[in-house]
Amino acid sequence: MSLLEIQDLHVSIDGKKVLNGLNLTMEKGEVHVIMGPNGSGKSTLTMTILGYPSYNITAGKMTFSGTELNSMPIYERAKLGISIAYQTPPEIRGVKLRDIIRISGNKPLWNPQDEPEENIATPLLKKVGLNPEQFRDRDIGVGFSGGERKRAEIAQVFAAMPRLMILDEPDSGVDIDSLKTIAVDLGEYIKEQNCACLIITHYRHILPYLKPDIAHVMCGGKIMKSGNPFEVFTQIEEKGYCEYLGLCPPGIKEETERGMEI
Ligand code: ADP
Ligand code: MG
């Protein structure tokens, strides 16, 4: 039985069809890369796997270790071991970073009387290269740089100890040194925990650390091609998406010519 199995998935948001017959199978411990032009449905796929109610499944089926996900609420999916780092992590005023990390790990909020030294969020913040003294007590995302937000998100994902982590452009807006820190941590985590990872990226920098098994290229709400990640990246860098895929639906050409999201 596969860890994640998605068959002929069709999804609409506010009546707009976004996913159009997507198929994807992941086994335990596998690392899959998803690429594709802006607007091809990559983030929609991640939000649908996690179970956001506004992402309306009109056809198809998703299972996780054989359990059907389609109508399961988000918190049940999180309990099964699915965790996501969002493309655009939210700012939440009034909630401390240390507390969301503890909640992600199913731990009670920090009470200095029971636990003189905070010992759940602190090591995870260190692990992702954020100084706990400076970040622990800050409101989530508020005033964080792009890279700091991404690292704080990954600390929450690590806290959840997922069986499947979904990372939506973890490398966007992150400087090259931080990128290496994040990539090394992710690579170690995947190996140690035998965790499966679905990673959306436009760049190859982190691939050597994550050792992906396969790359998929999405366009128009479905996976159009799959192959060896390094070969797929090389071809797309040379040819661009339209020529690589051998098609160019309306809207896609203009998007790719304008450049990728940063
Ligand atoms: P990607 O992550 O591949 O860039 P997305 O999955 O974010 O693409 O978006 C796919 C398409 O769905 C886009 O055309 C986008 O405008 C549309 N879309 C995403 N979210 C919404 C929404 N909440 N309401 C309406 N359209 C949406
Ligand atoms: Mg996206």
Automatic annotation (TrEMBL):
Residues 4-245 form the ABC transporter domain. This is Fe-S cluster assembly ATPase SufC. GO terms for molecular function: ATP binding; ATP hydrolysis activity. Keywords: ATP-binding, Nucleotide-binding. Belongs to the ABC transporter superfamily. Ycf16 family. It comes from Candidatus Desantisbacteria bacterium CG2_30_40_21. SMART domains: AAA. InterPro entries: AAA+_ATPase, ABC_transporter-like_ATP-bd, ABC_transporter-like_CS, FeS-cluster_ATPase_SufC, P-loop_NTPase. The keyword Transmembrane helix does not apply.
